[in-house]
TrEMBL record:
<protein>
    <submittedName>
        <fullName>Retinol dehydrogenase 12</fullName>
    </submittedName>
</protein>
<dbReference type="InterPro" id="IPR002347">
    <property type="entry name" value="SDR_fam"/>
</dbReference>
<keyword id="KW-0560">Oxidoreductase</keyword>
<dbReference type="InterPro" id="IPR036291">
    <property type="entry name" value="NAD(P)-bd_dom_sf"/>
</dbReference>
<dbReference type="Pfam" id="PF00106">
    <property type="entry name" value="adh_short"/>
</dbReference>
<dbReference type="GO" id="GO:0016491">
    <property type="term" value="F:oxidoreductase activity"/>
</dbReference>
Length: 327
């Protein structure tokens, strides 16, 4: 379990970096400015119907990308597609709404199979969707996985692996996975990934979420290694503390003081999306792979904690859990 000292240091470092970020102002992305280079390029964003995913989808559509919005709620998704169309004047053929439930591997397989057939070249995959509960009760996905590990890590693990050929076909291409600063206070035990044996979920019951977010960065690093030479590069991003709906499942008291924190040191969804877009688009990052970013730069303390051996073991376990070892 993370100690109170490590939790305190993690908060202190966040506040310091957030303060620096305030001083430096908006993040400038050094990207291709000729719109013709984007024509026909396909980007996929999971959880594109709200918060950070929606902001990323808006920014990509405004640049001329064909954006696949992978959402579990198609009714909400439809209204977001209309909103993006109005705000960006994107062609309707450039906004593709598709159903994806990351809490159900069969849905992930159906979705990936449709996308890989219909869009043989995929330039950008943004693994953004996520859930965050602060309950002391263990919840599971349709496949019986602990819900955070299942949705935030395993769903994206399977999706990414099933779309790798499409990403390679579009190289240079990128995979950006949204993680969290909370990975610094994870307690990932590979022999109990589904938290069946732990007695409590730690400070504010955050261990299940924190572990899934550490898994996002370990996955990104291991995938980056495996893709060296393929033209596909990987990035994991903590967006900062952002005013979105991700805290919707919190208890009323926790929601109250999280909102207070957001008011004091948080970011808007548009600001939070900046580092995701930086990793997706900045030309200077084309030679980097597997690293973690926050506030538009390397998230060094998280990178220092990355353990290649754990990443490799997590990869092997994840393959088995999603059934890819049977291929
Ligand atoms: N906000 C923050 O302060 C913060 C900080 C660090 C990291 N993050 C990460 O940022 C990412 C985006 O979250 P957000 O802050 O933008 O929150 P959000 O507005 O709640 O967005 C989360 C998205 O994930 C989707 N989603 C949840 N479960 C899903 C499932 N089973 N299948 C498919 N989609 C699913 C949600 O769809 P529905 O609308 O259908 O629920 C929603 O579109 C998450 O990975 C989160 O962990 C956020």
């Amino acid at each position: 379990m993370p100690s109170y000292l490590s939790i305190f240091l993690y908060i202190l470092e966040y506040l310091y970096e957030r303060f620096l970020r305030l001083l430096t102002g908006d993040l400038i992305i050094d990207e291709e400015t000729d719109p013709s280079t984007v024509v026909g390029k396909v980007a996929l964003v999971t959880g594109a119907n709200s918060g950070l995913g929606k902001e990323v989808a808006i920014a990509l559509a405004a640049r001329g990308y064909k954006v696949i919005l992978a959402c579990r709620n198609l009714t909400l998704g439809k209204s977001v597609v209309q909103e993006i169309q109005q705000r960006t004047r994107a062609l309707s053929s450039n906004l593709i709404l598709k159903e994806l439930d990351l809490a159900n591997l069969s849905s992930v397989r159906t979705f990936a199979s449709q996308v890989s057939t219909q869009y043989p070249k995929l330039t950008l995959l943004v693994n953004n969707a996520g859930v965050y509960f602060d309950s002391d009760e263990r919840q599971v996905t349709k496949d019986g996985f602990e819900v955070h590990m299942g949705v935030n890590h395993l769903g994206h693990f399977l999706l990414t692996n099933l779309l790798l050929d499409n990403l390679k076909a579009a190289a240079p291409s990128r995979i950006v996975t949204v993680t969290s600063t909370n990975q610094l206070i994870a307690d990932l035990q590979l022999d109990d990934l589904m938290l069946e044996r732990v007695e409590n979920f730690g400070f504010q019951n955050t261990i299940p979420y924190n572990n899934s977010k550490l898994a996002n960065s370990l996955f990104t690093k291991e995938l980056g290694k495996r893709l060296v030479g393929s033209g596909v590069t990987t990035y994991s991003v903590c967006p900062g503390l952002v005013a979105t709906d991700v805290f919707r499942n919190f208890t009323p008291f926790r929601k109250f003081y999280t909102n207070l924190n957001i008011l004091l040191v948080g970011l808007t969804a548009k600001q939070g999306a900046e580092t995701i877009l930086y990793c997706a688009l900045d030309k200077n990052l084309s030679k980097e792979t597997g690293q973690i970013y926050r506030f538009g730069k390397h998230f060094k303390s998280a990178m220092k904690k990355m353990d290649g051996q754990v990443g490799k073991s997590l990869w092997d376990i994840s393959l088995q859990l999603v059934g890819l070892n049977k291929k």
